[in-house]
Amino acid sequence: xxxxxxxxxxxxxxxxxxxxxxxxxxxxxxxxxxxxxxxxxxxxxxxxxxxxxxxxxxxxxxxxxxxxxxxxxxxxxxxxxxxxxxxxxxxxxxxxxxxxxxxxxxxxxxxxxxxxxxxxxxxxxxxxxxxxxxxxxxxxxxxxxxx
Length: 147
Prior knowledge:
Blueprint: H1 2-15, H2 28-43, E1 50-51, H3 53-58, H4 63-69, H5 71-75, E2 79-81, E3 88-91, H6 93-103, E4 111-116, E5 120-125
Antiparallel strand pairs: 1-3, 2-3, 4-5
């Protein structure tokens, strides 16, 4: 009962004098995924409290934007609001399971990298989560790599 009262009061305080939202409705889904992944990345495991106010400020999101963006992950119990201050969140076990299943490579898929004379490198990555970058001369942005 006391915790429910705390949550109710915290909600009122967080919603008091909210600025006008500046994020377009069409951007919400993209931003929800980005913010959820960043909370998970910072937390590193379920239940750990992380502050996200710097993340919101870097993206130019005000409190109203952040509340709209995180409404779905909160509704589906992927994250929880923590403490009294605005911007403090933790990942739930359900959210962590979702994050692991969709965004963390947990092994089981193969990676094979081989090289030959002259610095030619071949990478075969058997994972639908993989991202491959190529480079030449310690530059990963090279577009013309000699064969």
